[in-house]
Every structure is written in C-alpha cells, then in structure tokens.
Amino acid sequence: MIWQTSRFQIDLSQPRVMGIVNVTPDSFSDGGKYFNRQGGFSSAFEHCEKLVRDGADMLDIGGESSRPGAPTVSLEEELARVLPVVRHAASLGVPLSVDTYKPEVMQAVLDLGADAINDIWALRKPGAVQAVAQHPNCGVCLMHMHREPQTMQVAPMEGDVVPQVRAFLEAAAAGLQAAGVDKSRIVLDVGVGFGKTVAQNFSLLARQNEFLAAGYPLLAAWSRKSSLAAVSGMSLGSVAQLNVVDRMVPSVAAAVLAVDRGARIVRVHDVRETVQALKVWSAAS
Questions:
Q1: Is 124 exposed, middle or buried (0-12, 13-18, 19+ CB in 10 A)?
Q2: Model pTM?
Q3: Rounded CA gap, 80 and 63, in Å?
Q4: Which of 111, 163, 173, 256 is deepest in the core (most CB within 10 A)?
Q5: Where are the domains of the chain?
Q6: Alpha-carbon distance 38 to 20, whole Å?
Q7: Which residues of the chain fall below pLDDT 70?
Q8: Per DSSP, which regions of 72-151 are E strands?
Q9: CB neighbours of 88 closer than 8 A, spacing ≥ 6?
C-alpha cells in the first residue's frame, strides 16, 4: 500500500512513525516547549532534526492546539508559527505533514513543500476541499471529530461510536474522491479523544479492523492521550499536571497495539521509544 504525497510515495507495507512538532504555547502535552517567539524557532528546528535522528519516518507540524477547550488561533498567527518550521523541515529529507484546518494555511504550506495535510475537521471548512483537490499529488489525512475542540468533551458522542465514525470517514473520503483526489492520497484517522469517552476510544482500538474494509490506510494517534492515563492507574492529579513521562509507556503500548491491528501510521511524541518497540513487534510478526 502506497500513500501518495507531494514529494514522496510512502510505502506503507511496514508501519511508519510520524513525529509530532507542536509550534504552540498551549498544546496539552508539550505546549510552549518548541514555541518561543522572542527566542526564534531554533528549538523547533532542533526538535525536527532530533525526531528524524530518532527514526521518524515523517513529521507533523501544528500551529494551533486542538486540546479540549483550546482557543482558536487567527490565520495570521498560525502562519507566523508554522511557516518558518515548515520551511526548515522541508529540507530534512522526510515527508512533512501539517496539522491545520484553514485552507489558506494549507495552500501556504503546500507551496513551501509540505507533503500532506492532516485535518482534524476532515476538510469540512469552506475552501479546504478545494485547497487539497487543486494540488496534483499532496496527501491528506481525514480525522473524525465530534463537535469542535471547545465543546467536544463537554458532550461526547453517544452509543456505539464505531459505525458512526466509520460512516463519517468513508463519506468524507468519498466526497474528496468526487472532487478529483485519488484514493491513494487519502489516509483516515478515527479521532481518539476528539469527542469520545474513554470506553469509546478503546472500542475504536478493539474494533479497529472494522475500519480497514474500505481500503484506506489508518493513522493512529494515541500518543499521551488522557484515556491512556485513565486506564493505566494514574491519578487524576497526574493527568491534570501533564506528567508526560508517566504517559510514555502506555502511549508506546497503544501504538504497538494499533499497528498490530492494522494501522499503517502512528503519530507520536516519543519517536525513539516507539521505533524501538515496533522493531520488537516486527521481529515477532
């Protein structure tokens, strides 16, 4: 299976690790660590380079937090955050995805050499489909999100989420193909933590094989999510304090489980540890 992107045809016959680069002051796991307007973007550049050294097959750069309750960011601010990092990361020799829902940002980063768009809104914003469809080769990841970041966990989904999420994603992918985007350019993400309860998130993992029938590669994004803390014995206090060290091990475990159940890409913060774990998984497969 190949994921067609702007500059790369990514071979998904083996699982690929996507390293996360948050250029934001308020992301739930590492907000502000790689964002320092006064100090420039050197820490973000260095982080991109480190993730590649650690074994990341691709990078995913985001300039607006999508954590529950996160405020929106203006177009001008998002562009100011991501463009310098995209320009640098595009020179590192690995595929580059940008996490955005704004069509103007999509166009700008694709013009700079980004390979794929990773959209939590699944291109539902006006102009987003056109921004992707008019590009000859860029990849796109369509994610399911219930409601929006400001309200998604206030009133999560109800009932069996698997058929609901599957129907949404398949319809979004079909609509994109109708706009002229080849199926080989599309990847799907079930949206762990985006408007679902802990039990619902784990049902998506337990029944992940049900999403494979449509023939699209799956991207799994479990890294450091609070659902992992909820089932791994951590106190609510440690979750609230964003104890990322404690969440690394369950994150890696979830990534391996997702791959074992058919995911082709795992989007992670802890690249080195995930790469090592997947080597163990591969040796036993």
A1: middle
A2: 0.92
A3: 9
A4: 173
A5: 2-284
A6: 22
A7: 26-39, 234-245
A8: 96-99, 116-119, 139-143
A9: 41, 44, 45, 48
Q: Tell me what pLDDT residue 124 has.
A: 97
| Cα–Cα dist 146/38, whole Å | 36
Beta-carbon contacts of residue 266 (< 8 Å; ≥ 6 apart): 15, 16, 17, 18, 219, 220, 221, 222, 223, 255, 258, 259, 274, 278
Cβ(245)–Cβ(232) below 8 Å: no
CATH number listed for the domain at residues 2-284: 3.20.20.20
Interstrand relation of 2-4 and 9-11 (parallel, antiparallel or unpaired): antiparallel
* Cβ pair 254, 222 in contact under 8 A: yes
Catalytic residue annotation: 225, 267
Distances (CA, A) of 208 to 37, 161, 168: 40, 12, 15
The token pair that represents 219 in the structure block:
């991207």
* Torsion on CA atoms 41, 47, 50, 56, rounded to nearest 10: -120
Give the integer Cα–Cα distance in Å for 124 and 122.
6
Burial (Cβ within 10 Å: 0-12, 13-18, ≥19) of residue 279: exposed
